[in-house]
Every structure is written in C-alpha cells, then in structure tokens.
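User: ok so my PI wants both of these folded by tonight, can you help

Assistant: No problem, let's get them done. Here's the first:
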Amino acid sequence: MSQTSFTRFYWSFFLVILGIALWGIFFLYSASYNIGSEQGMLALRQMVRIAVGLMVFLGVVSIGYKSFLNISYVLYVVTLILLIMVLVFGTRRYGAQRWLYVGPFSFQPSEFSKIAVILALSHYLGRRKKNLYQIRRFIIAFIMTIVPLVLVLKEPDLGTSLIFIPILLCMLYVWGAKLKYFLMTIVLGLSSLPFLWMLLKPYQKDRLFAFIDPNRDPLGASYTVIQSKIAIGSGGFLGKGWLQGTQNKLYFVPEHHTDFIFSVVGEEGGFISIVVFFLLFVLLFRLSFMAIRRTTDVSGKLLATGIIAMVFFHIFINIGMTIGLMPVTGLPLPLISYGGSSLLTFFISFGLLVSIFKERSIF
C-alpha cells in the first residue's frame, strides 16, 4: 500500500459522505419549506453543522484512531457522567429528557455515548486474547455496554439504547467469541423481556402494539407510520417533484424533517431517489469494509466493525420504521435527518474509519 492508495480511498470516502449529506439537505429544505419563519432555516443550520462536521472529520483523520483508543476509557467515563447529568439537569422535549445545554447550544450525550462505547470495547477486547478467560471478557464487555444502555433507556430513548446490543454482538463476533456465549446472551435477553417491558413508558408500549397491529390505533400510535407509508407509496417511480410532496407539506407526517425524512425522499423523489440513496450507502459500506480488510490491528478492526454496525442498524431501523417493517424508535437516518449531535457523531465515526485505513497505508 502507498500514499496513492490512501489518497484514492480518502477522496472516495470524503465525496460519498459529502454527497449523502448534501443530497439530504436537498430534501431537508423541502421538508421545512412551509414552516413559517423556519422556512429554509433548518436546511441552513444543517449546512453549518455539516461544515463543522467535515472539519471534525478532517481533525479525527489527522489525529488518528490510536490516539482516541488510548483515551477511550476516559471518554467512556466522561460519557457516563454526562448521561447521569442528563437525568438530573437535562432539558425535557417531546416527553423525553435527553438534552444538555452549554450556553446557547444543546447536545445529546446519548448520541456520543455510542462512539464512546465502541472505542472502549475496541480498546478492551483488542488488547486481550480471545482464547484466554473468554467468559470473563464477554461478561465485562457486556457490563460496559449495559451501563450506558440503561442510562439512555431512562431518558427515555428506546431506539438509541437498543442500538448498543447489535453493536456489541457484531464486535464480539469479529473478536471471536464462542457461539455458546451468544446463545447465553439471547436466552438472557429473552428472559429479561418482562422486566424491560415494565421499564417502558406508556407511549413506547403503544408504539410496539401499533407495530404488531397497525390498525389498532390508526389515529394515534399508528398514525405517523400509516401516513409515512402513504407518502412513500404515492411517490411512485419518479416522485411528485421537489417541493411538491402533499403528505409532508400538509403535515400528515409528523417529524418529517428528522426521524421520518425518508418519507420526503420517497414522496418527492420516488423510487429513483430511493435507489440513489441506497447506492450511496452501499458505496459507503464498501469503502468502510476496506478499512477492516486493510488493517491487522485487532483494536482497529473491532473499531471499524462497531462503527459499521452502528451506521447499518441506524439505516435499517430508520427506513424500516418509515415503511412499517420496524417499530417507531426515533433513530435518525445517518447524515440526512436534521440534528447536530447525531450528525457530529457520524462524522467522528467516519473520520475514525478513514484513519484506520490511513495507518496501514502510510509508513
């Protein structure tokens, strides 16, 4: 490998994430087109966040993933402290207490907790042999994950808390954990469902009931998903055209600039725009897997695995809930949904992926 191979990879990766983000701005502007004084402002704010995110991305690539692994435990502890502060001092919006304010700015520690957990797990597992005291390693990794999961669930943020589980399992699989430990985890998870059900808020239970039977409450818990499916279906092959979506413009789909922005893509851009999005994400994953294949560092491989798992399940769950194949959980669509904390988290993650490739390409 050489400087040339890294340069090609870097620019390919950079252009793909920039393309996804700008393509998202295109539809975000449409989603906020008729929001009175907010018309166009959401898209402008998101563009500023993308510019900041790109600078952070470049900074992470320059610093290198090993520097972040070296302070991963510190970042993990700081994240836990912030999650506790959210429960005590956090600002409540839409029935959830997830935001902390620093002057005029607000952020969600739960978003950054995902990358902090991935870094800590990568550092811990990467420095320990998979065949020595494996059950102990497995349990410690599980505890490291379950602590922030419970804190995030208490906010409450069911979607973000559940995303920790597939991240952990994917990283343990790549690390080489034995199958019996995965089966043990599945049994433990199933046996804990009654307890977890008791922790859910009434609206979260309603969402799960609505997922099982969408016609159970068509004007309540099922309303958003039903309208989202109508919006996407009405887009047809070519879509209704930019700024021409009726389901979203008339507010039949709530939160269509955040969690349900995919309904805007489907309605206004149609099947063609959906295919473009999928192709961009497929290319993103193809480049991401190159980082795994090119590194011999176990910690780097685990870090890349955790990041890919995080991005994949965000996409899978978000799109799944907009078309009724997954329960509504509130997970944003990477680089596209409106929001600063999630956007910055993904840019940090992508910077780490590029730095993993860089470490093996430049000597």
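One down. Here's the second:
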Amino acid sequence: MRIGYTLMTEQAGPGDLVRFAAGAEQAGFDFEVMSDHYSPWLDEQGHAPYAWAVLGAVTQVTERAELMTYVTCPTMRYHPAVVAQKAATVQALSNGRFTLGLGAGENLNEHVVGRGWPPANVRHEMLAEAVQIIGGLFDGGYFNYDGKHFRVDSAKLWDLPERRVPIGVAVSGSQSVQRFAPVADVMIAVEPKAELSREWDATRLGGAPSRKVGQLPVSWGTDRDAAVKRAHAQFRWFAGGWKVNAELPGPAGFAGATQFVREEDVAGSIPCGPDVEPIAEAVREFEKAGFTDVALVQIGGDQQDGFLDFAEKELLPALRG
C-alpha cells in the first residue's frame, strides 16, 4: 500500500503548504493530495488559499511524489473546460505526476458563485457531464459539447502534457460507483468499505482492478490529551458524514451541527497521540477493504513539522514493515 500526505488547504496558508509539500517528499511519502476549498469547515481552521496556484508552486519544490486534487468540484465554481486546462497545466509542470481527483462538491464551497445548491441527483448528473467534457478535451483537438447542464464551444487545450492526466472520482455508494467506475481511472473514497472496492472493479470496463485512494485523519502529538482537544476543535465536522457535510453552507453551520460532538466521540474515530499502532491499525482497515493508497491528514496547521519528522523516523518505516 502506498502512503500519502494531505496538503489541507483549510488549515494552512499557501507558503506553508508549499513548504510542507517539500517536507513530505523528503520524509518519504509516496504521494501528496490537496483539498480544493473556498472556505474552511470551521473557523478554528482559519485558511482557504486557492489550491491550483499552490499546486503550481508545489510542482516546483517536489520531484518524485505524485500529486492529486482531493477533490475538485468541476461543476459550479469552475467550469469543466477550465478544470481540464488547469489539470493539463499542472501535469505539464509536474512532468506527469498529477492525477485529477473530482467530486460532486459541497455547498460550503460552491454556493459562493450565487447559483444555489442543487440536490444530489442533479449534482451527479452535472459531474457526469463534466467528466465527459474533461475527457474529451484531454483527447486533444477542438471539442464541442451540448448537454443538459453544460455547453462547450470549440474548446481546445493548447498545452497537452505528454502523459494524459488520470481522472479519479469520489464515490460513496453503489449509485455513484455504477455511474463513474466505467469512465474514471481511480476510485476515491474516505471510508474503508470493501463493497465499494469490489463493485468498482466489477463495474469498470473490462473488469480490471484499478487504483483506489482513501484518506485518514490523524492527530499526532506527544501529548495525547492535547491531540484529542486539537482534533475536536478542528475536525469535529468529520462526524456529520458526507450526506450532511455536502449540504451545510458555511463554518457557522458546521459549528452549530457539531456543538454536541464530544472530545471522546472524536477520539473514538480519529487516531490521536504519539503512538504508531493506532494509525497503523486504521490504515490496515483500508488495506483490508481493497484500497491501494491512503493519504494521511495531520490535524493542525502548526503540527506539520513535528508530524513529518515522526513520519520519517517512525510511522512510514512501521507502515511499510
């Protein structure tokens, strides 16, 4: 299993994220994923720089680690034709190390353009059209599209990278797997559900297994009590589940929805403290579920340097052993 590092834009500014990216590669992480948000989940996190500008800088301070958006919504804030252009550019800058991770988005980030927030079935329709458009532009040449939600008029990517950008799509259940497994290269999910992996491979064209990337939040720290408090302060939003998380419009909504989430609730679902084994046990759950990759999220923008040192000296050797 390949172990990745999450550049979480909600908890660090652009300069720090670029520095963390270089440090994560030096520490030995196999790949790095980046969130793409207009707003943090909670005020306590305090950041939300433009992910694509940061990614451009990250390509220049890393050489080996693969890069990925986790995930970009190509339907409202961004038109899919523009997402295709951005992805092709990052792929060219990184010399073929980039994977475009896509998802149906959250109200938190997409409402800012003033188009409202459509229901889940419409969001999936929009994402399906976006994947068609992005793939068509990756094919090269002039591209036109006339769909229910999007139109593209004689668009062309003038700087296509030598290696076609792989497309990953975030899924959470059978409906999204059935829709996107035949058209995507990579499965993305945040819960270690074996049924997702099995159905994804069975539904893919040709039935061939593919890369499956999960994500795991951790709150490393030498003081476990402090690590638990930090996880509760900054990551209690995670307890809502994605059906809820996709609908709330802003940090105040997440604060209200999670006001009764206790520290012990967070500690029960997120590995906290200085020990390797709780993290390794949580990673094993993804491995058992058929995932090929898992990206770790260290909670706390001011904790990244210590975590990267811990990862290099203790965590990564243990996970690979």
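The chain has 13 helices and eleven strands. The chain has one domain: 2-320. Good luck tonight!
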